[in-house]
Amino acid sequence: MTITYRFSTPIYPSNILYVNIIPNYTCINNCVFCSRPRTKKDFHKPNIYETKAGTSLYLKKSPTLKEIITEINYNIDKNDKELAIIGLGEPLIHLPKVIQILKYVKKNYKIKTRIDTNGLVDCIYNNSAKKLKNARLDEIRISLNATNEKDYLKLCRPKYKDAWPKLLKFIKDCKNEEINTFVSFVVDYKNKKMKIDTSNKEDFVRFAKSLGIKKEKVILRKYLKPI
Q1: Which domains does the chain have, with CATH numbers?
Q2: Nearest-angstrom CA–CA distance, 142 and 139
Q3: What are the backbone dihedrals phi and psi of residue 208, each rounded to the nearest 5 degrees, phi first?
């Protein structure tokens, strides 16, 4: 199982240790622009995320806390600046385990902690932002991808009916808890059949600012076609 991994790009340096805890690429969204493997026949085919990571991120089951801690202790480097819980899927499905990981890391290492998420954790758990703050999470990057509920439902196809209001509330809760909060949008994705066009970057920035997110904390992620 690949629990920890690294990759280096001009934007992301190699001194970040990534932590993968997500079994079967599980997510609570089914985004139309995402190349995440969805069915077993796709699990071992090339995709843009694992190609970038340089390793398979497939986990048959979520690793135990002991397995995760062992991997972190073995692979963390004294020069690492950040530990990021990401993987391929949605890590906060496993919020209780994530909280334990964060508490352990903060107790034993002087390192920044980060989570990348679709922000729908409050569809499953309560008071998630407060729990993450109490576990001393430093930074969170939340995939927003739309400026209204109609577009969000078309783009991200969440499993929960109350996803949009829960997402917006979670963003505001993270800010109120003083977690360093970023929001991201996939740009330049077009689907004529579904009448989707995510090329208006100014609208994304404007909407993020209406939620209290500063322009410099808006991440515009260029859409990458599947391999």
Answers
A1: 4-222 (3.20.20.70)
A2: 10
A3: -60, -40
223: number of Cβ within 10 Å: 13
Token pair listed for 88: 């391929």
Cα(196)–Cα(154) distance, integer angstroms = 8
Q: Are 105 and 111 in contact (CB under 8 A)?
A: yes
Q: What is the pLDDT of residues 105-143, one digit of tens each?
A: 999 999 999 999 999 999 999 999 999 999 999 999 999
Query: Alpha helix locations (H) across 65-119?
Result: 65-75, 95-108
pLDDT digits 0-9 by tens, 12-25:
677 999 999 999 99
Q: Which residues pair with 83 in a beta bridge?
A: 17, 113
Q: What is the 3-state secondary structure (H, E, C) of 178-191?
A: CCEEEEEEEECCEE
E strand or H helix at 219, and its extent? strand 218-222
Beta strands in the chain (DSSP E): 4-5, 16-19, 82-85, 112-117, 139-143, 180-187, 190-191, 196-197, 218-222
The H or E element that residue 17 is part of is strand 16-19
- Across the strands, what pairs with 186? 221
* The one-letter amino acid at 193: K
pTM of the model: 0.95
CB 87 within 8 A of CB 65: no
Alpha-carbon torsion, ordered 188, 90, 99, 2, to 10 deg: -110
21 CA to centre of own chain: 12
| Tokens at 225, concatenated | 């076609």
